[in-house]
From TrEMBL:
SUPFAM superfamilies: NagB/RpiA/CoA transferase-like, Winged helix' DNA-binding domain. PROSITE patterns: HTH_DEOR_1, HTH_DEOR_2. Keywords: DNA-binding, Transcription, Transcription regulation. This is DeoR/GlpR transcriptional regulator. The keyword Transcription regulation applies. Residues 4-59 form the HTH deoR-type domain.
Length: 253
């Protein structure tokens, strides 16, 4: 087996484990030039094995995945993000919007027993998860259910969101880019996220590393509207500097 094939196989193993790879990290790991790594990534993208982004690569998009299938992807990273967010960023007496998304549901699963605040959610899976929590007050918002995403949205949802003033909005992150901000693939979900942002004092975006440096058609907000970014992979400082320099508190689990 050639060294090129071996190196590319190792790149794919890293990518499946971490969700994102950075060209400078790969060059150092394989003692290869940046041009060599770029050629590897181009070839792997042509084969449909990854998607290149600025400075690296992520796993290819799989829009047909169900909610349950997405929840199984990158599970160790999701768990680390959830534990860090629940432990360090959610005060025990806070009023918090819990958005849609598998990582947000994981945060609910790790919410501290001492939490005695209020969770307002658009995700029925979160309401079910927190039904057994000893102290949390749970408000499930109404609306039209997007079954593949397990989220309610639409005019009813937005009207209900506007009834509350929250301390935090915990946003699921479909795509986050330092220039184009937070974006999503569904216009109704974009409107719900924007409403939660407008009704909250602070915004926390939680995301696995594969969602960084990406964008989708429906823009939710600028990057500087987000107070905290929590991500899981131990990315290089250079990879995250464009987020931190916009004033975000970047937290790595």
């Amino acid at each position: 087996m050639s060294s090129v094939i071996t190196r590319q196989d190792e790149i794919l193993k890293l990518l499946r484990n971490m969700g994102t790879v950075h060209i400078h990290d790969l060059a150092a790991l394989f003692h290869a030039s940046l041009d060599t790594i770029r050629r590897d990534l181009r070839q792997l993208e042509d084969e449909g094995q990854l998607r290149r982004i600025h400075g690296g690569a992520v796993l290819p998009n799989k829009p047909s995945e169900t909610y349950e299938e997405r929840a199984r992807d990158l599970q160790p990273e999701r768990t680390a993000i959830a534990q860090k967010t629940a432990r360090d960023l959610i005060p025990d007496d806070a009023v918090v919007f819990f958005d849609s998304g598998t990582t947000i549901c994981e945060v609910a699963r790790h919410l501290k027993p001492s939490f005695r605040g209020t969770v307002i959610t658009v995700n029925p899976m979160i309401a079910v998860e927190l039904a057994a929590h000893p102290n949390a007050r749970v408000i499930m918002l109404g609306g039209t259910l997007l079954k593949n995403d397990m989220v309610v949205c639409g005019p009813t949802t937005i009207d209900e969101i506007r009834k509350y003033n929250a301390d935090l909005a915990l946003l699921g992150t479909c795509a986050l880019h330092p220039e184009s901000g937070l974006s999503t693939s569904h216009p109704d979900e974009r409107a719900s996220k924007a409403a939660m942002i407008s009704q909250s004092a602070e915004i926390i975006a939680v995301t696995t590393a594969d969602k960084l440096e990406t964008s989708l058609p429906f823009r939710v907000c600028d990057i500087d509207a987000i107070s905290h970014l929590v991500t899981g992979r131990k990315l290089s400082a250079g990879y995250l500097k464009n987020y931190a320099k916009r004033g975000m508190n970047v937290v790595q689990a």
